[in-house]
Amino acid sequence: MRSLAAQSTVILVALGLLAGCASKDDAVVDPNVFPKNYKREISFTLQTTLEDPTNIRDAFITDPTLTQVNKDQRYAVCVRFNSRDLNRNYKGSTDRIAYFYGGELNQLVEATPEQCGKAAYKPFPELEKLCQAKSCR
Q1: How far apart are CA 12 and CA 9, in angstroms?
Q2: Ranges in the chain, pLDDT < 70
Q3: Which residues, 6+ apart, have CB-to-CB distance to 38 below 8 Å?
Q4: How far apart are CA 74 and CA 9, in angstroms?
Q5: Which domain holds residue 82?
Q6: Does the residue 69 lie in any domain?
Q7: Is residue 45 part of a domain?
Q8: 45-62, pLDDT tens digit by residue?
Q9: Quick one: which H or E segment has residue 103?
Q10: How far apart, in whole angstroms, are the C-alpha atoms of residue 3 and residue 23?
Q11: In the prediction, which pLDDT does 22 show?
């Protein structure tokens, strides 16, 4: 028969392990961390999602700004570029908006004129140089 002290020790160790599991703090993410790598994340996403990511022209981007999204504020970036279709024909300028959560790209979708129509764009040469004259897939 085990001693009362040994049984108590086993119980305390078990409770300690359970308490450790229960108190593990799943890090709370601040949804509005500034997206430091926004250009790189947008470039990578476009490289993998565009029909033909080679030789993109007329690329422009905005700085990240806090934008109202439903009831919340999130960092958003507008991107404008002219890419090619599968037949290597340029499709014309298109605007997309990138939403960030916790400093990471969460969504990159077509933008409405209300979302990016008055945006202060600046050149985005990194996107134009992404896949010049070669396939990068």
Answers
A1: 5
A2: 1-26, 132-137
A3: 64, 75, 77, 98, 100, 105
A4: 50
A5: 38-128
A6: yes
A7: yes
A8: 999 999 999 899 999 999
A9: none
A10: 30
A11: 47
